[in-house]
Specification:
Strand order of the largest sheet of chain B: 2-3-4-5-6-9
Strand content of chain A: 5-15%
Radius of gyration of chain A: 25 Å
Strand content of chain B: 5-15%
Largest interface: A-B, 51 and 62 residues
Number of strands of chain A: 6
Helix content of chain B: 55-70%
Distance between the termini of chain A: 24 Å
Number of helices of chain B: 18
Order of helices and strands of chain A: HHHEEEEHHHHHHHEEH
Distance between the termini of chain B: 22 Å
Oligomer: heterodimer
Order of helices and strands of chain B: HHHHHHHHHHHHHEEEEEHEEEEHHHH
Helix content of chain A: 55-70%
Structural class of chain B: alpha+beta
Number of helices of chain A: 11
Shape of chain A: elongated
Number of strands of chain B: 9
Largest sheet of chain A: 4 strands, antiparallel
Largest sheet of chain B: 6 strands, antiparallel
Shape of chain B: elongated
Structural class of chain A: alpha+beta
């Protein structure tokens, strides 16, 4: 019983850790998107709140990894622990996750970002020009002086009030200031976008029907089916590696499905069953099948370890 | 720690070989690299790849090594904060410090060095082309000696280049032929006496005291060198005070020599009279301050014939007028073929005046050239806007080439320093905007008007109210924060916004580089905690088949490392936002130390629960 309580406590701590991390990262990421040169940092409380939800959702996705690590660390192999693991998985994906999404939906309208206007007295670069802002940007216009990048000549210098072209704005996307983009452009936007897409689809599934949610939750079942690999090897280091490696592989598999590059697959299977599109159902079946394979493997490993003992 | 060191070193060496082989095969060599340099380029590229992966490789080997070592030596740790753990901690700390130093050197010194070297290979083909073009131009204009020098430079870079070799050989042959055909026009004895006179004159033109100039002027009178006598006496009079006892004598010499100069000598031939008259005209222009005219007169005389080119008067006053002209403008031919030797491109900055107005400066390319006394910078494509205090664009200009020097503010009096806004600086940039043709009067390049904008009033030069050292920092900053050395980055961060740059960008780079060693150390201790938890069981032996998992373990560590780098960057961003760059750095350092203490306590509190 004590071990089960510690196990549950560890789960709660893992979620709290991810919530805090989500708040930290989202707040800073949001700040980096809105910050412009010359303007002090400002706190956006809605970014903090959004980070809270994001962190919790990502925590739910990674919680089986943390619980498996706990199991490897303590070496506990009791049946109550295994049962509590299953219950925590069901709780996470059929109660907690939907509850978090529903809460987030209620406050999401206040989380819209306003683009920050560019400040004066700084040099910025567009694709074709070096620009100095004489005045602050207002309504997408600013007084500037500039020279063209490629051809030096008195004819390629320009000055006056200009509308900031799309070229200039697109060059800084998703940041407000192209100067800031230079520093933070190695942020893995694609990973962030993929997680955003997964979370978007989770909301979409929940909004549609419970059946949709169950199909989506096959992703969670697959994540939680790595439990058996916590005793893959007599050496704990290998076990830590295995559970992490499997988690990453599962995320990558689902990433390929949710990535926009593979949207064309959706057109291949256009039939729908019980109101669920063919492609979603196929994805759910694939996840379920892989979960079954991992669970069977887990039991085989357990049998082998038990015989060796 | 023996097992850890052995395992870590073996894994690192093995990974080094794998990285080098992988990088040599998988990373292609760009086309611009010369065939003779492809081998070294490939090697440097592979080294860079390994250095980037090194923290991950070493961390993997270190964790595995510790896990094996702790497995075989876990006695004495039944309680938290046992003495055995303290012993382990000490060894781990030493090892971690060594690894941190290696990572820091690799990341902050070796990788930038390799980057610069690899970048230089990109410039080599362009440099060879420039040398070849120069050699060809000089050959065609008969300057065989210089053509040979540039041809030789091209051959030194790429000995296999046939064109460079041909240019060098042809120039060498022509120069040898020319030297053999040349006969001396004057005798050696008279040549050496003329050289002595020239040296005497040039020595006399140095800023000596009044009495010394008077002595030289007297000697010139004795030698009937009336130009020299007048010049030195006039110079002495310019610097003498009114109560100087030598003033009377100097005035006498000046008057006598001038009378001699202006009185035609009836014994001389007509041609010589013409030459003399021309010299006098040039000298008069020089004395009256029309240095440009004086220069062209003496230059024309110098080019007229070989005898005149070695005439002491012509040589002396051509040098003198050229020196004075060079203080105000430069020669157009100084800027030929500088593009290939530019060290900085696309440099821009803003400079504020005390009046509240501002100069916005854009420079396409900068070429530093070392002269005997200093380094001058040639600025290509200089565009300057002047903005008044009401944010209106008041005037501007563009000049294809400008020449920039560093001048001491001591040259100016107090009022001028205040007027120019340079009273707080020791050296400031002095930009010459006017360039002239070396041989032909009238060919001039001056600042050009920007369309729809009045021309700035410059009088052919611009003095920027900023420290010259700041200009050099801005040049380096134009390459980007990541390519700046810490010794330049640190002073620049505080000044960036003054010149129109974002301090956040440079401060972030500074934070990342300064705090990297502390972060590495903390992570190494955390990995030790993980290794303790992942150690082999007591009595368990290491199985050879586990080695197969190590590369995958390395891949997992790589993913964790990339995530950790992002978190590290965000952490620094947060500190920068909270405290600015000075306080933020202190705060970040403090928090890093706190993390180190927490991880250390975490490690020391580990115990052997299985026992």
């Amino acid at each position: 019983m004590k071990k089960v309580c510690k196990f549950v406590l560890y789960y709660v701590l893992a979620l709290l850790f991810f919530t805090f991390l989500g708040v930290f990262i989202n707040f800073l990421y949001d700040s980096s998107l809105r910050i412009v040169a010359g303007v002090p940092f400002s706190f956006n409380k809605f970014a903090l709140l959004k980070g809270c939800f994001l962190g919790l959702e990502v925590g739910i996705i990674f919680s089986p990894l943390f619980l498996c690590n706990y199991r490897i660390k303590t070496g506990s192999r009791t049946v109550p622990l295994f049962i509590s693991y299953i219950f925590l998985g069901i709780f996470s994906w059929f109660l907690l996750f939907p509850a978090v999404i529903l809460c987030e939906n209620k406050i999401s309208s206040n989380l819209l970002q306003k683009k920050t206007e560019l400040t004066a007295n700084f040099f910025r670069e567009s694709e074709s020009r070096y620009v100095y802002f004489v005045t602050d940007e207002k309504n997408n216009k600013a007084k500037i002086v500039s020279v063209e990048k490629d051809s030096p000549s008195e004819k390629n210098a320009a000055f006056g009030v200009f509308e900031l072209t799309e070229e200039f704005i697109n060059d800084s996307e998703p940041f407000s200031d192209p100067l800031i983009k230079k520093s933070y452009d190695d942020f893995p936007h694609k990973i962030k976008d993929t997680f955003s897409r997964i979370l978007y689809l989770s909301r979409d599934a929940l909004n549609k029907s419970f059946l949709h949610w169950i199909v989506f939750a096959s992703f969670g079942i697959l994540l939680w089916s790595i439990y058996g690999f916590t005793i893959f090897s007599p050496w704990k280091l290998i076990n830590y590696f295995m559970v992490f490696f499997l988690t990453v592989v599962i995320l990558f598999l689902n990433y390929f499905y949710y990535n926009e590059r593979f949207v064309f697959l959706h057109n291949l299977i256009s039939d729908s069953f019980f109101g669920i599109s063919g492609i979603e159902l196929m994805h759910g079946i694939l996840n379920a099948a892989l979960s079954f394979i991992l669970i069977v493997f887990g039991f085989i490993i357990y049998g082998i370890r038990r015989r060796k003992l | 720690m023996k097992k850890t060191i052995i395992i870590c070193s073996s894994f690192t060496v093995f990974s080094f070989i794998v990285c080098m082989i992988y990088a040599m095969i998988a990373i292609p060599v760009p086309d611009f690299v010369l065939a003779s340099s492809r081998g070294i380029y490939r090697f440097l590229n592979s080294m860079r790849f390994f250095l980037r992966m090194m923290p991950v490789i070493v961390a993997t080997g270190y964790t595995i090594g510790l896990a094996v070592e702790f497995g075989s030596d876990q006695d004495g740790s039944l309680v938290k904060f046992s003495s055995a753990m303290f012993v382990r901690y000490r060894k781990i700390m030493i090892f971690s410090l060594v690894c941190t130093c290696i990572f820091t050197f690799g990341n902050l010194i070796f990788i930038p060095l390799i980057n610069n070297k690899l970048e230089s290979y990109r410039e080599i083909p362009g440099l060879i082309r420039e040398y070849q073009n120069l050699s060809e131009k000089l050959y065609n204009s008969g300057e065989y000696e210089l053509a040979f020098i540039y041809g030789k430079k091209a051959v030194e870079i790429d000995p296999t280049n046939k064109k460079s070799y041909e240019l060098m050989i042809n120039a060498e042959l022509e120069e040898t032929k020319r030297q053999n055909e040349q006969k001396p026009i004057v005798s050696e004895k008279s040549q050496s006496s003329q050289n002595r006179k020239i040296q005497q004159r040039l020595t006399a033109s140095k800023p000596y005291e009044v009495f010394e100039l008077l002595s030289v002027a007297k000697k010139c009178v004795e030698a009937e060198d009336w130009f020299g006598a007048h010049f030195n006496s006039t110079q002495a009079l310019n610097i003498a005070s009114d109560c100087d006892i030598n003033v009377g004598e100097l005035k006498q010499i000046a008057a006598l020599s001038w009378n001699k100069l202006t009185t035609p000598d009836s014994d001389k031939l007509t041609d010589e009279q013409k030459i003399f008259a021309k010299k006098l005209e040039g000298y008069s222009a020089l004395v009256s301050g029309d240095n440009l005219r004086a220069y062209y007169i003496f230059k024309t005389l110098s080019l007229a014939s070989r005898e005149l080119s070695i005439d002491p008067d012509v040589v002396t006053y051509l040098a003198k007028s050229e020196e004075l002209v060079k203080n105000a403008c430069f020669f157009i031919d100084e800027t030929y073929n500088l593009v290939g030797f530019e060290t900085y491109n696309n440099v821009y900055f803003s400079v504020s005046n005390k009046s509240g107005s501002k100069f916005i400066v854009f420079i396409k390319g900068i070429t530093p050239v070392a002269t005997d006394s200093e380094i001058v910078q040639y600025l290509r494509g200089l565009t300057v806007f002047e903005i008044d205090r009401n944010q209106n664009v008041k005037s501007g200009y563009y000049v294809p080439y400008a020449k920039m020097l560093s001048i001491s503010t001591e040259f100016f009096d107090d009022n001028s320093r205040i007027l120019l806004g340079i009273e707080n600086f020791d050296y400031v940039p002095y930009i010459m905007l006017k360039s002239i043709d070396r041989k032909t009067e009238g060919i001039v390049s001056v600042p050009q008007k920007i369309e729809n904008l009045p021309l700035c009033e410059t009088d052919g030069f611009q003095i920027l109210p900023m420290d010259y050292n700041d200009f050099e920092l801005i040049q380096i900053a134009s390459n980007g924060a990541e390519d700046m050395e810490i010794t330049s980055l640190f002073p620049f961060v505080g000044k960036a916004e003054k010149y129109g740059y974002s301090s956040i960008v440079y401060a972030q780079s500074l934070f990342d580089r300064l705090l990297y060693p502390f972060a590495c150390l903390s992570v190494m201790i955390l990995l030790a905690v993980f290794a303790w938890n992942a150690r082999l069981k007591e009595g368990q032996t290491f199985k050879f088949k586990w080695i197969v998992m190590f590369p995958f373990l390395c891949a997992v560590f790589y993913i964790i490392y990339r995530i950790a780098l992002i978190l590290f960057k965000f952490f620094n961003f947060a500190m920068l936002g909270l405290g600015g760059y000075r306080l933020g750095l202190l705060l970040a350092l403090l928090l890093n130390l706190v993390c180190l203490v927490i991880f250390s306590v975490l490690f020391l509190s580990q115990r052997n629960t299985e026992g």
